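Sat 14:20. Reprocessing the chain from the morning session after the first attempt stalled halfway. Input below, unchanged.
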Amino acid sequence: MKLLFINGPNANLYGLDPSGTYGQETFPDIAARCHRKAATLGVELDFRQSQDEGEIITWIQQARGHAQGVIINAAGLSYTSIAIMDALLSFDGPVIEVHMSNIHRREPFRNKTYTAKAAVGSICGLGPHGYELAIQAMVNLCRT
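Finished this time. Tokens:
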């Protein structure tokens, strides 16, 4: 089983944000944590990050027929990108949305995401642990 895990703009700065909103773990640490989780579940994980909306859309389109599930933290694009939502809706497997912070406790504009409209479920506010939970949940969805 192959899963695609997409991270959007500024995710590469996790652990470096002085506000502490996204915790202390760096992006490479989170990537390593996710790869370890996938390995324990016996699945291949393609873990990516991009600052570019178009590149993210291309990755989603290319995943059709190659990945069994997509996990996405589109970051700031979650609130603005109808194009990413449309790409996710065209994917031929389940989609899970994940966010490091609790988007419902933040600014009002963060309370609704376009990516959630394409997802079977969303996980937010659990930091890097939420990423691991998303991988576990996706494996469960794909194996049933």
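The chain has a mean pLDDT of 92.
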